[in-house]
Amino acid sequence: MSSRVIRTAVLSFVSALALLTVQTASGQESTSNTPVAPQPKVKSQKEVDAIMAIQNALDPDSRIKAVEELIRNFSDTEFKAFALQMAAFSAQQKNDFEQMMIYGERTLEADPKNYAVLVMMAPALAQRTREFDLDKEEKLSRAEKYANEALKAIDAAPRPNPNVTDQQWDEAKNDFRGQAYEGLGLVSMARKDFEKAVAQFKQANDLSPNAPAKIRMAAALNAAGKHDEAIAAVDEVMADPQLNPQLKNFAQAEKVRAVQAKEAKSKQ
User: Fold this and answer.
1) Is the torsion defined by CA of 46, 63, 87, 115 positive or negative?
2) DSSP symbol at 242
3) Residue 11 has pLDDT above 60, yes or no
């Protein structure tokens, strides 16, 4: 399993932890004394069934439909933020950026400190901001705000469920922090602040080592004129025999860019 898949799975796992409160069987409770978030409660078996329909949906469209049915039929549900977050995640799976942002904003209306949605929205918005967009800076500022708000929320976040150990939660929080720093790195790249981008991608990779962050760091190093460092970063990524083929192509392209830039410099 690739690092990117693992990161996505962590996000989904932490989101789904809330559902453990409505399941009849649960794991052994942690003995930790660290704070746990208030657990949402259901008011009827019909609401339980509607929530489980979200969890058990077989595809993104079915999951989004189940989310809308829960919110329509149970307007006072305490699972509203969770459901909308799952809809945003499902839209991301469909590569539907507009729908993802709509559900993300709806999630934040229900839960302004929802770090999982914030770290989803920040890089997505930054990546879709183009050089000559008339609202370029407005979009980049929004993406930057999402990422910084995520970092604050993650720092203050209690364990989402008593079944999560302190170690598991520390690892999950570092993964979310890494995603937030990737979002900040993408903002800095769009602003052509390459040195800052290098530092942010490095921080992302230090918190949650993964090939995409390292490849993005190599791109920032190339843009900053540090081609030897870019080559070293890419070589480290490509040394992984389990590297996703698409990521390998991106890494190879970045190495070619670095080598060509070095050769061009040597001829000057």
Assistant:
1) positive
2) T
3) no
d(CA 63, CA 118): 20
| CA–CA dist 170, 178 (Å, integer) | 12
All residues at 6 or more sequence positions from 10 whose CB lies less than 8 Å from its CB, including other chains: 172, 175
Tell me the H-state helices in 58-210.
60-73, 80-93, 97-110, 115-127, 136-156, 166-190, 194-207
Nearest to 86 by CA among 15, 10, 18, 175: 15
Question: Which pTM does this prediction carry?
Answer: 0.88
**Residue 159 β-bridge partners:** 36
Whole-angstrom distance, CA of residue 153 vs CA of residue 119: 11
Asked whether the CA dihedral 141, 111, 183, 204 is positive or negative, the reply is positive
Which pLDDT score is estimated for 243?
Answer: 93
